[in-house]
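FORM 7B - TANDEM STRUCTURE REPORT

SECTION 1: FIRST PROTEIN
SEQUENCE AND TOKENS:
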Amino acid sequence: VIRPYKIQPNKHLSRKDRADLILLAAFNMLVVAPMLCCPIFEAMWNCIQGSTRQDETGEWRWVQELLIKVPIHALIAELWFYAVHILLHRSAFLYGTIHKIHHRFTSPTAMACVYAHPLEFAIGNILPIFLGPALTN
């Protein structure tokens, strides 16, 4: 159904490439994110917010949450992701040891966005999701 809209119609992943992509992406999403990032970033969030952290029993101020904080969260996430990405490209060491993994595939696929070194995935992909709420409570 979507094959006619493929940007690079003659580029396809081999079975080995597809398996590598699925394995690293699954490792990042099923191990790195929940078992490494969540506990570390939760501790970071508690250090930033301390006892002032808003909980579920407090009154929800939808205007403040949706119209002010969500755009701030999106801006923080985009700026952090961009800054990390630029840093990974500008440093030959970081590019060669960490970021080059992400650029292995020249044919764009949806899962290739999480096909990254676990450190890049944690700091560049997952940390931005936590930063906005951690900074704005």
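SECTION 2: SECOND PROTEIN
SEQUENCE AND TOKENS:
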Amino acid sequence: MVLVGIEAKMLTSAQERHLSCLDCLARATKRLRIFSSVFIVCSLIFSSAIYLNSGTLQFNQVHLVHTIYNRTTTQLVGTRRLVECAPVQRIVFLKTHKTAGTSIGTILQRYGYTRNLSFAIPAKNTPVFDCCRYFKRSDVFMYKEQKSELGGDGGETNTFDMLTNHAVYLRPEMDAIVPDALYITSVRDPVDQFESAFVYFDIANQAEIAKVKNPIATFFTNPQHYKQKISYGGRQVQNGQLYDLGLSTEHFLDPFYVKYKIRQLDNEFDLVFVKEYFDESLILMKKLFCWGIDDILYIPKRIANFRFNISENLRETIRKWNHADVLLYEHFNRTLWRKIEEYGAEFWQELDAFRRRIVDVTSLCEAGSQIIKDNVHHMNIIRLGNKTNFCRNLLRMDGEYTALIRKRMQVKEWRNTKRNTSISDLNSKQQTVKGNINSTKSKLSTNNSPISDTMNGKRITRVRKKIFKKIVKKIKKPVTKAGYKAVGKP
């Protein structure tokens, strides 16, 4: 019985130890699970931190790049996707006549002028280049071409950021002045453009048909005859838009040349405005240039208050007369709407926001303004009531901006000339001082007296220095009262 009791106790203690080991194992397993969970959570947090840090690094790098351009612009591309881009500041605007070119040019000049960009403006004191021939780089104000080492032209030229004034398109010459630029231009319905040019250039008076009831209808009774009488703006009477874009007048009636020129322009221009869809074109330009909404704001500056009575038959006659311009307009009208479709649904949201902004700004800047009639060009001009710089810049004409740009360039050139002159004068004075020092050294070195202990005469001898110091001390030593008594009266 005693042995049985002992064995029972030993069994009970063994079971207790076994149970205690199982409890330890369970606790260890529980701790391991907790540790694994904590490890997984820490790993997720760590990986998220790495991802966020890398994203922040990339954003900082992008922000640093755009800080060079003094701004950062965010654009919507596709559905809910933001893209950072740098604003374009190298632009050539080929300004065609009577196609909203003044409004576009003013927007570009305002952007460049307020950011101190450089402009290629006409060398003559006018807001237009020579519109009777192709553009030449020598027509640019303050144009300078470095001479090549072999003599003659062919060196590097000074370049500019923008070209926005009226000029006849010639790509190689414009590329030399504004390299690596984006090119834009504008077109308009040829009938409306012809009517606007007819009024602006005063064709009726030049053709001596101003007193008839409908000068345009009279003009088309014999257009070749009346065209010969026109001197000012005569090239805008027929296919004026394609002429500004570089098509020679002798090819106006050649279908091959006209279609070839349109294809060429389609390849060479990054955007072509359509005047009838001006706001839509501005939204496309904003995206192309990576600008903000305030960069493309405008206030209508001129409102036409004179129109001719043009019937459908007369309209068709004008279209036949400007057949090349009709083909040009139809092509780029289709191109515009294709780009709008590619833009996506965000286009219409941006357009609505832009138009609301224009309404707000117009009401702000036109408060207290006056409308002045321009009887010469049959237009209305707004005299600004709000005198803030913001509104002044919005309402300035392209001619005013051209004058301001010219003045700024002249002041900058004068300052550079004055600085260079001062530097050259200083250099000449330094050369003169050096020459005097060298001549003195040469005299000292050639002197027979034992003045110098060096062969090149750069330093005088120590003995000479001591003697010189003693002489200076005697000269500068003041005469005291005691010294006066010692010397005595003279």
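SECTION 3: OBSERVATIONS ON SECOND PROTEIN
The chain has a mean pLDDT of 78.
The chain has 17 helices and nine strands.

SECTION 4: SIGNATURE
Preparer initials: ____
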